[in-house]
Amino acid sequence: MTHLDLTILVIDENAIRASIIEEGLREAGHARVTVVHEVNGIARTIETLMPDVIIIDIENPNRDMMEHLFQLTRTVSRPIAMFVDRSDTASIEAAVDAGVSAYIVDGLKKERVKPILDMAVSRFNAFSRLRRELADARSALEERKLIERAKGILMKMRGLSEEEAFALLRQTAMNEKKKLSEIAQSVVTAAGLLM
């Protein structure tokens, strides 16, 4: 999917400000733009539309509205760009914690919409990649710990060396066409039942 094929949802209670964003997106070549002027029921709209990117514009943000939007954005795994006219440190931190990819204060101009959208998508993709890499690294570490535990159990129960215990785990995994970590989990589980 190219950047121009994106389905974009614009949430803006102010029709004039929404038209600035929509015009900036259309001039940049984006054809699939939906504008919503009502924040209430927005979760259903997002579920139905399944946008690739969400742009939120809040002229005068109040604490309740920001919290409602931040609760929503925490559950939506999509790039989100937010335009506000004024802000404070707490609002910026809350936006970052909620997963907002671009938080723009006092910068709503149609010629800035596309670069901000592109930046939000790029930041979201980079953050998602880092999150996946972290999850993969954690998973690999947990698998290594599990394999080490299984080797220790085999060494103790069968009197094997570390190399022999690992070779036994590896050979069993190959014979059963399973992952090494699955065999290690079986060994740890069985040992837990026997001890």
TrEMBL record:
GO terms for biological process: phosphorelay signal transduction system. InterPro entries: ANTAR, CheY-like_superfamily, Sig_transdc_resp-reg_antiterm, Sig_transdc_resp-reg_receiver, WH-like_DNA-bd_sf. Residues 7-121 form the Response regulatory domain. Keywords: Phosphoprotein. Residues 127-188 form the ANTAR domain. One of its GO terms (molecular function) is RNA binding. The modification 4-aspartylphosphate is found at residue 57. This is ANTAR domain-containing response regulator.
